[in-house]
Design brief:
Largest sheet: 2 strands, antiparallel
Number of strands: 6
Strand order of the largest sheet: 1-6
Number of helices: 1
Structural class: mainly beta
Distance between the termini: 69 Å
Shape: globular
Length: 158
């Protein structure tokens, strides 16, 4: 008679987890505030432009994003019509310095987390305007939002 040894191993699952934060900008600007987003325009001099959810309607008053198309509402990377936040050069006036911030709600990140976002820069179809974007992070327990002009980064030093 042959005896078989049946061995059960209980191995705890130690999967790799990553934090996930996703925001599609599919709702009205007030929803961004309710969701904990913060906005601050530290441009010098401060202009009239603020961060908003897109609200384009057709016919467009002019081609945007260099498409030459005035009959199609722009869409976000993975959303529907107008599913993106935007701000423009009117954050300042003349040859001023632009420093217009869109700050996410508090997000916990760990080593190994990946940050992914999509951006698009404007053009009027003939002139390709230079845009610069910085992605910054505050490692302070309580973030200090920039408030003293275009060179201030608050606690967003990383």
């Amino acid at each position: 008679m042959k005896k078989a040894l049946l061995l059960f191993l209980l191995i705890p699952f130690c999967g790799i987890s990553q934090n996930q934060f996703s925001f599609g900008f599919d709702s009205a600007p007030a929803a961004m505030t309710v969701a904990g987003w913060q906005f601050t325009n530290q441009s010098a001099p401060v202009g009239a432009s603020t961060w908003v959810n897109a609200t384009f309607t057709v016919p467009l008053t002019g081609a945007i994003f260099g498409s030459g198309n005035v009959n199609t509402v722009p869409v976000g990377q993975a959303g529907g019509n107008n599913s993106f936040a935007l701000v423009n050069f009117n954050s300042t006036t003349g040859a001023g310095t632009i420093s217009n911030w869109l700050i996410t709600p508090d997000i916990t990140v760990e080593n190994g987390d990946v940050v992914t976002f999509y951006s698009r820069k404007g053009t009027d179809g003939t002139t390709d305007f230079p845009d610069r974007l910085e992605l910054r992070m505050s490692t302070a327990g309580i973030a200090v939002v920039p408030s003293t002009g275009p060179t201030d980064v608050g606690t967003f030093t990383t």
